[in-house]
Write a structure and sequence with these properties.
By secondary structure, this protein is of the alpha/beta class. The chain has a single domain (2-207), classed as TIM Barrel. It contains eleven helices and eight strands. The chain has an eight-stranded parallel barrel, surrounded by eight helices. Helix 5 (89-101) links the parallel strand 4 (80-84) and strand 5 (105-109). The chain is globular and about 45 Å long. The model has no long low-confidence stretch (mean pLDDT 96). The structure holds ribulose-5-phosphate (5RP). Residues 6, 8, 32-33, 59, 134, 136-137, 165-168, 185-189 line the site of ribulose-5-phosphate.
Length: 210
């Protein structure tokens, strides 16, 4: 089971510094959508130059022109790029093809997908590397959690890896890890902690059953 830190609410220099503090405890560091919107793909580039043994994910949440957007993120140092599950199949195909041509991976974010099982089966067949169930900030504010969605998606996919995101913290990660996803994504639960390094270590220890 892999652990990913999502960094959403800092500038690119602060993001790179935070990634360096926690990199020994995580497998993937993410430049979140708000940073990309604020600062562009230069934030992905700086992060990829600042860390050593972790993968870099660019959370572009692509919706169209997918092959081109994936190629740009990869040019700036991304190992994994995100696209929305509600995008057209043609976009998903273009994104998968571009990522795989470059030896990189595609994560499909299921935010706002209504029929999770049906779309997960389709995305699995289209070659998505990860299918990520995700309770976004706006639904977290209404008290939603991604656990039920995780169970649904896990029950139908054959090839893709399953990821889960949305309000997970060191206090709640055990209940998520018990569902055995391939990747757990934690943002504010680490980034906003008083001691992010200690929070990342705690998450790592818990998913390793320590
Ligand atoms: O993509 C995101 C928001 O759209 C976040 O990166 C994701 O939800 C993880 O952050 P958090 O753990 O704070 O919810």
């Amino acid at each position: 089971m892999k652990l990913q830190l999502a960094i959403d609410l800092l500038n690119k220099e602060e993001a790179a510094k935070l990634a360096q503090q926690v990199e020994e405890y995580v497998d993937i560091v993410e430049i979140g959508t708000p940073i990309v919107i604020n600062e562009g793909l230069g934030a992905v580039e700086l992060l990829s130059q600042s860390v050593k043994d972790v993968q870099v994910l660019a959370d572009l949440k692509i919706m169209d022109a997918a092959g081109y957007e994936v190629s740009q993120a990869i040019k700036f140092g991304a190992d994994i790029v995100t696209i929305l599950g509600v995008a057209e199949d043609a976009s998903i195909k273009g994104a998968v093809e571009e990522a795989h041509k470059n030896g990189k991976e595609l994560l499909v974010d299921m935010i706002a997908v209504q029929d999770l099982e049906k779309r997960a089966k389709e995305l699995d067949a289209l070659g998505a590397d990860y299918i990520a169930v995700h309770t976004g900030y706006d639904l977290q504010a209404e008290g939603e959690s991604p656990l039920e969605s995780l169970r649904k998606v896990k029950s139908v996919i054959k090839q893709s890896k399953v990821a889960v995101a949305g309000g997970i913290t060191p206090e709640t990660i055990k209940s998520v890890a018990d569902e055995n996803p391939d990747l757990i994504i934690v943002g504010g639960g680490i980034a906003n902690a008083e001691d992010p390094k200690a929070a990342a270590k705690l998450c790592r220890d818990i998913i390793e059953g320590k």
